[in-house]
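Justification of computing resources. Each target in the renewal requires a structure prediction run like the one illustrated here; the chain below, 347 residues long, is used simply to show the kind of job we budget for.
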Amino acid sequence: MPHTFYMQQALNLAKQGFPDVAPNPLVGCVIVKDDKIVAQGYHQKFGEAHAEVNAINNLPAQLSTANCQLYITLEPCSHFGKTPPCADLIISKGFKTVVIACKDPNPLVSGNGIKKLQQAGIEVITGVLEQEARELNKQFITYFEKKRPYISLKWAMTADGFISKNPVSKNREENVITGIEAQTYVHQMRAETMAIMVGKNTVLNDNPTLTTRLVKGKNPIRIFIDKNLEVSPHFNIYNAEAPTLVFNSQKDEMQNNIRFIKLNFENHVLEQILETLYHLKIQSLLVEGGTTLLNSFINQNLWDEAFIFQNPKLNFGTGIKAPELLLGENFEKVGKDFLYRLKNTKE
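Resulting structure tokens:
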């Protein structure tokens, strides 16, 4: 079998670690002898054994590793963290060949695991299904390579390109654009991201909770910008359901689950926010609106992926215009709505 076959098995295994390994990457490992998989494992939970350890522990007793190939989706760690270095374990077990999908971008590891294996006389083959491995851990990799979270933009719009009526009707149902299937999809997205962000006007107009109430999953950290602290503590975003960061120009303060973070609004606000999130170890950010905030990310080219839901049968005629990104022709149906998924290719 080619290397890609076994690496694909390792990638499939890695996915089983979601979401329990966060903020660690998803990693899978397959051990092969005589073109047959003899053991496999994956990183199952943050703070517990890594994929290589679990795979090696699953090897049949008395099996010699001398003629085995070890396939791993991410470079083995070379440092002491919550667990000992996996590179040292691989060396001690006598493996002669290690196949790696992609290098670990964490500066504590980056290239050092590979170097350690090579210095021990092990043949190391890299780059097998590298793009697939990078896609699997796009949040982890973006965080270390770009020193900011992986940024996903999301909005819903009508067929004629509006995200909201203006002014918003007192009957909030009149402003709903997508069906329950799309709303559930978005709540699943929230469950899979570390933080969610909206602007002040979205909070004032919609009073959102920004939780995962339609699905099972952990609520993300809520983030919003409120320069002059105009949003009353009675709004839903201040409730106790999730930690909340309030970027403002007034104060640095902690109040129960609410953290106020003071910024200099005279200078590159989004860059200050992303730098703060990087230092808080937040690897993924879902930006849900409104238009002003979304356009700020788009105009500064600070985004990685966009999820745009469109109700093809609803027209508002007038209102708040949606951000403008070229949708293209490809979409998937979510209930009766269309979902366009765009990747930022300008970076």
